[in-house]
Amino acid sequence: MLLEKIIFICVAINLVFTFWYIKSILRSSTRPNMVSFFIWSLAPFIAVFLGYKSGGGISLLGPFMSGFVPLLVFIFCLFKKDSFWKIGLLDIFCGILSLFALVCYILTHNLWVSVLFAIASDLLAYIPTFIKTWKNPETENYFIYLGGILNNAVSLLILRDWSFAIYAFSFYIVLVNSFEILLIYRKRIKKVFYS
Predict the structure, then answer these.
(1) In the chain, pLDDT over 90 holds for what percent of residues?
(2) Residue 68 in contact with residue 158, Cβ under 8 Å?
(3) 3-class SS at 91?
(4) Alpha-carbon distance values, 157 to 17, 113, 178 (Å)
(5) Is 32 helix (H, G, I), strand (E, B) or coil?
(6) Quick one: pLDDT band at residue 192, thresholds 50, 70, 90?
(7) C-beta of residue 102 within 8 angstroms of C-beta of residue 117
(8) From CA 154, how far away is CA 138, in angstroms rounded?
(9) Taking the CB of residue 39, how many other CB atoms lie within 10 A of it?
């Protein structure tokens, strides 16, 4: 099927977007929240494992990339001094809650509940980035989030089995990354509508 081949093109595009994001970190124009990126690199891999157990196939490439891309950014930021946003008490609190949700996700034997915990873990990790982007949208760029939307939207298009464990994480990633891009551009959007 053509769409199944398109997913590989989307993965390549996502990697290009990731390298643009990393390039913007090198130029110090993007400063990611390390707590968010660390948690984002964990939860999707477990979601992929559960989706695979549920019979998911090539459509799991989108969620896989949702974990692999943050892992690349996290590792890169470890080696670049002052490349990430200052970690505060809220970041630590959200990180702990997110890790707790991730542990619940791993320990739960109910597939539906496990996927919900994976989404909760990822969403809790998003809170520090949402707050940072709301206050300082210039510290983010849309590349990495657009790549996540593209991968996961195509993953949803090629699904054959619409079981919750297979589609839920991809659907969530499309929504949450779209919201992040909206936060990045909210001031520009506001100017368009109110000028």
Answers:
(1) 8
(2) no
(3) helix
(4) 21, 24, 17
(5) coil
(6) low
(7) yes
(8) 29
(9) 27
